[in-house]
Amino acid sequence: SSSSSLLIRTLNLARCQADNPPTAPSEIVGPLLIGSSPIPLIELLEWNESGLVLNNEALAHCATEAEDLQSGNKRVQSSTLVRDDNKLFTKLKVGRVQRRLEALAGQHPNLNKEQLAKKLAKAGMGEGMSAERIERVTRVPARK
After folding, report:
1. What is the pTM of this model?
2. Is there a contact between 105 and 141 (Cβ–Cβ < 8 Å)?
3. Contacts with 127 (C-beta within 8 Å, 6 or more apart), sequence order
4. Are 67 and 87 within 8 A, CB to CB?
5. CA 94 to CA 133: how far, in whole Å?
6. Which band of pLDDT confidence, cut at 50, 70 and 90, is reported for residue 63?
7. CA dist 51 to 25, 44, 45, 73, 120, Å?
8. Is the pLDDT of residue 126 over 80?
9. DSSP label at residue 72
10. Based on the number of CB atoms within 10 Å of its own CB, is 126 exposed (0-12), middle (13-18) or buried (19 or more)?
């Protein structure tokens, strides 16, 4: 469903921000997309006695003004966004495996790339990748 796709995109964005922390406040939360209208989330927030809350009236107004991107019964995320999310997820996964491989290479300087990849895969630290794939997508740091 579209809500689970949105949750997956949000989780991927959070993982990306955890690996590469944002530098500006505008990078922390992207604009909210309602139909075809990107709306800065800051415009929908209000401060009242209970703290920071979402202004539901402003949100409803923005939703009525927005055009529907997908007509008919097709209410799913476009394949381009899903593909971009998958690319990002794969990039983050490979980065984590690369850091683990570099740490393992520091502990075992005499092992070659194939042996390091097998060791990572066998230990279950390869993010579900086979030893062959780990070997293909990573680089072994130069020996000192």
Report:
1. 0.47
2. yes
3. 93, 96, 97
4. no
5. 10
6. low
7. 19, 14, 10, 39, 47
8. yes
9. T
10. buried
What is residue 57's predicted lDDT score, i.e. its pLDDT? Answer: 80
Give the separation between CA 73 and CA 35, rounded to whole angstroms.
Answer: 15
56 pLDDT more than 50: yes
Two structure tokens written together for 8 = 């997956």
Angular region, 124: left φ>0, alpha ψ -120 to 50, beta rest: left
How far is Cα 120 from Cα 132, in angstroms, rounded to an integer? 11
Which tokens sit at 76? 């799913």
Are residues 25 and 57 in contact, defined by beta-carbon separation less than 8 angstroms?
A: no
CA distance 117 to 57: 54
DSSP secondary structure string, 32-53?
EEETTEEE-GGGGEEEETTEEE
Collect all residues with Cβ–Cβ distance below 8 Å to 32 and sequence separation of at least 6: 38, 39, 40, 41, 44
pLDDT at 129: 92
